[in-house]
Amino acid sequence: MVKQNRNCEAKEKGRPSVSLMGKRIPIPRSRLARIGGGCLLVVLGFFGFLPVLGFWMIPLGLLILSYDIASVRRQRRKVAVWWSRRKDGKQGLRDR
Question: Where is the chain membrane-spanning (predicted)?
């Protein structure tokens, strides 16, 4: 219930957000902060073999960058369509 309230508040305030697995995640309002944070996550993700840092930072950084950078957004959409088709294809095989 708390998560839904936060999402509603973010939508009401006009705060930018990205959708991940059906959930809306609010991101900073400043374009410079979004691009800087996304780039930082991607760069630090390459050091994922170190403690605390992780390879999970790369896709998260790309997700944040996809809000402002069109080429990253196109790739994200292609992956989302591919994943959806793949998932639907496996669902069809299970139903048989």
Answer: 31-47
Distance CA 15, CA 6 (A): 11
The pLDDT tens digits for 50-83 are 887 888 889 889 989 998 999 999 998 998 899 8
* Mean pLDDT lowest among 1-5, 55-59, 84-88: 1-5
C-alpha span between 84 and 86 (Å, rounded): 5
* 93 neighbors 85 (Cβ within 8 angstroms): no
C-beta of residue 41 within 8 angstroms of C-beta of residue 61: yes
Sign of CA dihedral 67, 54, 81, 9: negative
